[in-house]
Structure to design on (257 residues):
């Protein structure tokens, strides 16, 4: 395990690292997740093996610290990751990021462009989202609680029961405040939006999504901005878990540009 202090209060981001050739390959998890459980098989896959790989956990999640006074905005997540990558000597890295991690990775690339050489997004959030009216899995299942105190009082337990044992295995490692604030920040998005930032980035970019979702309505606009849009068969939102071979080969192909 490796770590870097990223806040003045001593809070540290931690990651699991595999030695290998540069440029560094950095994996960033989604909301309530942790990078090693989701990405270790990807890093070890023959299509990607041999690369220096960092499976990094954002503040508030996994094995990283959980400062209770952080707002956990997408910008704060990105800036903290930037400090960690600087200390890890991982400039110009290839970033592979899932779901909320994709929104953070786009923000990282926009705010700290020297740190990101190529970007691969796995079913990432690109746009602000209205507050939900009914409970359902994911960010909306958390943001249905209109106040943080309501979430802390009973939403945390209800959410853990609601998401099922697989997601709960990593979500239970998250700080409840971090989980709620991150979810609300993801719904608000950034200014400019993640999509606007993604379309303006001058680096190679790819967006991977489940083929079961059908043709994305934004495919033309993304490809027009130079983003490769790739449908991955036989998977749901957790592409890397559902179709390891398909995901690893798609990432390797995207990083061959």
């Amino acid at each position: 395990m490796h770590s870097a202090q990223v806040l003045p209060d001593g809070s540290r981001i931690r990651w699991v690292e595999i030695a290998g050739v540069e440029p560094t390959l950095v994996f960033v998890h989604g909301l309530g997740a942790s990078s090693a459980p989701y990405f270790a098989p990807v890093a070890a896959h023959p299509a990607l093996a041999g690369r220096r790989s960092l499976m990094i956990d954002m503040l508030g999640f996994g094995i990283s610290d959980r400062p209770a006074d952080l707002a956990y905005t997408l910008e704060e997540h990105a800036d903290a990751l930037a400090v960690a990558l600087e200390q890890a000597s991982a400039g110009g890295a290839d970033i592979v990021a899932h779901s909320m991690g994709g929104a953070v990775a786009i923000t990282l690339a926009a705010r700290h462009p020297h740190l990101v050489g190529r970007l691969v997004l796995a079913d990432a959030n690109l746009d602000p989202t209205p507050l939900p009216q009914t409970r359902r899995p994911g960010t909306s299942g958390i943001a249905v609680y209109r106040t943080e105190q309501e979430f802390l009082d009973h939403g945390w337990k209800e959410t853990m029961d609601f998401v099922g044992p697989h997601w709960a295995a990593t979500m239970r490692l998250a700080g409840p405040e971090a989980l709620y604030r991150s979810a609300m920040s993801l719904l608000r998005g950034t200014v400019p939006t993640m999509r606007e930032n993604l379309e303006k980035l001058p680096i190679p970019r790819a967006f991977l999504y489940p083929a079961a979702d059908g043709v994305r309505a934004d495919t033309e606009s993304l490809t027009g901005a130079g983003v490769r849009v790739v449908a991955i068969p036989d998977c749901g939102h957790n592409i890397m878990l559902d179709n390891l071979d398909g995901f690893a080969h798609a990432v390797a192909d995207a990083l061959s540009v």
Q: What stands out?
A: The chain is about 40% helix and 20% strand. The mean pLDDT is 95.
